[in-house]
Amino acid sequence: MSQSPSEKAKTxxxxxxxxxxxxxxxxxxxxxxxxxxxxxxxxxxTADALKLSGKINQKGGFDCPGCAWPDPDDxxxxxxxxxxxxxxxxxxxxxxxxxxxxxxxxxxxxxxxxWTDFEIGKSGRLAEPMxxxxxxxxxxxxxxxxxxxxxxxxxxxxxxxDEAVFYTSGRTTNEAAFxxxxxxxxxxTSNLPDCSNMCHExxxxxxxxxxxxxxxxxTLDDLYNAEVIMVIGQNPGTNHPRMLTALEKCKKxxxxxxxxxxxxxxxxxxxxxxxxxxxxxxxxxxxxxxxxVPLTINGDVAFIKALLLKLLEKEDSxxxxxxxxxxxxxxxxxxxxxxxxxxxxxxxCLKASGVSKDIFEAVFDxxxxxxxxxxxxxxxxxxxxxxxxxxxxxxxxxxxKGSIGKEGAGTCPVRGHSNVQGDRTVGxxxxxxxxxxxxxxxxxxxxxxAKHGYSVxxxxxxxYEKKARVFFGLGGNFISAVPDTEYSAQAMANxxxxxxxxxxxxxxxxxxxKEALILPCLGRTEIDxxxxxxxxxxxxxxxxxxxxxxxxxxxxxxxLLSEVTVVCGIAQATLGKHSKVKWEKYKDDYNLVRDDIAExxxxxxxxxxxxxxxxxxxxxxxxxxxxxxxxxxxxNFSINKxxxxxxxxxxxMMMTIRxxxxxxxxxxxxxxxxxxxxxxxxxxxxxxxDMAERGLKDQTIVNLKSEFDGVIxxxxxxxxxxxxxxxxxxxxxxxxxxxxVPLDSFAHTAKTPASxxxxxxxxxx
Length: 765
Ligand SMILES: Nc1nc2c(c(=O)[nH]1)N[C@H]1C(S)=C(S)[C@@H](COP(=O)(O)OP(=O)(O)OC[C@H]3O[C@@H](n4cnc5c(=O)[nH]c(N)nc54)[C@H](O)[C@@H]3O)O[C@H]1N2
Ligand SMILES: Nc1nc2c(c(=O)[nH]1)N[C@H]1C(S)=C(S)[C@@H](COP(=O)(O)OP(=O)(O)OC[C@H]3O[C@@H](n4cnc5c(=O)[nH]c(N)nc54)[C@H](O)[C@@H]3O)O[C@H]1N2
Ligand SMILES: [Mo]
Known about the structure:
By secondary structure, the chain is α/β, with parallel strands linked by helices. The longest helix has 19 residues, at 300-318. The chain binds ligand MGD (2 copies) and molybdenum atom. The site of one ligand MGD has 34 residues, from α26 and β17.
């Protein structure tokens, strides 16, 4: 019997060999250096490793393909601006091994599907284009030209361009992303779902509405100068390790840090800077969080409301709490906001947040007595049904304190992929603003459709319902990243053609449409040779700085193309002579792409000159200078309801989080060192009381079940780990439990899957 699409899509259920130790209370330091070194020595040769190490995030070097945390504008560490997980991301891309025709002749798709994600990732870099014909068991080589023709033929056979879906993951550079969306729009659709739909979409929505820009307002200097930094729903020690250096600087300048998180993450307890050799040897890092708020999962609106209520009470009695001049001059909606706030009861809010009075008081004092406040957040806020409210409520707090658009204060949504923000800026957007589409029309003389396209969730439904029949992915690992694995696998299987432009083999190559293509491309670390010489590309980080990136290693195979070249090839093969865009010219000289971006995208004037500045350039940011480009022209207070969710008696609220040894769906290793987990990913972190109530112990094997809208979803074989997590809450790793996340449970208005609030039950096997 052959495997069903959903069997191929699910992660294998067998165990490794779980070892549990006490969670760490310090981050980075020598342990980080050791772990990075182990990784490099296992997967890369020394000469390449040395070549890379001095160039990571250096001016004129390459942008780390890990996270989107910015590099300092001025001095950069002589040891390289790197972190343990950045090194792992690079070693993963620059590994020695390659896979091509021989590998795929040896291993069938069905065989590969029973490998773990860790094993799949370790197979090597993709080295040549591969094609899976209808009914075939193995991928076979195909020439680039034939691959392009095949894509063109399938796209042109559709009855309407809206029957194709064009996904983007956030590593794609500005140049490739701009051309890609241009091609998609000329082809005739806006179906441009991207990883942002599963990530910071809720931040974008909330911030655009309230502050007029869907990006954060702060710079690195602001972080150094803040009086208080709240780190909410984010685990920087693992996911943005270089952020800890900024937090350390803030502390040294007398700032305070509040960590709001159901888990006490090691990275926020103490940090030993790996770029300070003396500290590394002597130990003794910097204590970071002054207060840890162990709130219940999705208790954030309740906790912030409790803070807002007490601030309002104090303002009413003492009158010196709010920044009244700021509120008067720059905001709208204050009266409506406060009168709604007064309908809530402080005790109820605090209770709903799960936070004790003592801890609340400690946070309240810091907020009351300081006026330069920064809120940093990530997936702990954006992956809930009320995600947009979470962020709007934070903005309310900042507005009351006048903590927007001044030194040391503002919003800091910490982005995930290294260029996810840039991709959106240059047009990867299923609902792009009309002004942007008009600019395209003027420049290229075709009218892009104004109809909004599919976001990730809508795309999955469309494929499932056979309204879309071709899936094209520029990077990423769609099937493992999306919710509701079984449903989504069927959606992919319903397509006529699935295509992935990738650096590494992943599960999405195994859960295919009738036909499938793997198109291997250059990674960030590799030199991009074209007719006019070596090309640079560019990216935008989490703080709106655009800078260049240039690879330093020889490509791992001669058959790789750059993403820019792939996009141009497909555009030519699909649109042919009738295209209004001169596709053939861009691939030889990426300066020409940047010239076009400069004309079409606001803020990129003189792009080719400014990109040569060693530290790059800042894009305009209204909120940073108190120009609020909202529909009202002011910063808007918002009214947000207290979320009303309830757990049934035996249910737990599950968040799906990242271990310290993965980049999204790429599994670097099986350890989660900071949390004391070794050699296993199929685990569930539980509160000891919840375990006792169910008769569970460490290492007991359980099955997980989620019931939503009458559908039961299951994920089998997980080992229980007792952990310091609030009662009623539990945590598992993404992507192993994506199969439990219902497709229809997503953030209102933003459609971010609610993968941090999944109601589940746990059953002993
Ligand atoms: N090494 C590495 N770096 C990465 C990534 C990676 O996988 N590996 N991924 C990249 C990407 S794409 C992204 S988006 C970012 C992700 O960066 P993070 O958002 O830090 O990643 P998660 O592991 O999803 O962590 C979410 C954190 O939120 C907490 N949390 C969960 N639910 C709640 C809640 O309801 N309230 C609050 N207050 N906290 C909550 C969790 O305990 C956890 O600490 O990192 C980027 N950087
Ligand atoms: N349950 C649950 N689900 C989640 C999340 C969660 O917290 N919980 N997080 C969500 C978030 S925040 C995100 S951003 C998404 C991530 O979703 P994706 O961005 O789709 O997934 P990644 O795992 O980052 O993609 C990895 C693949 O990208 C390819 N790749 C790497 N580098 C390059 C490159 O330079 N070019 C090209 N063309 N390909 C490259 C490799 O083949 C690799 O296998 O997942 C989301 N899914
Ligand atoms: Mo993300």
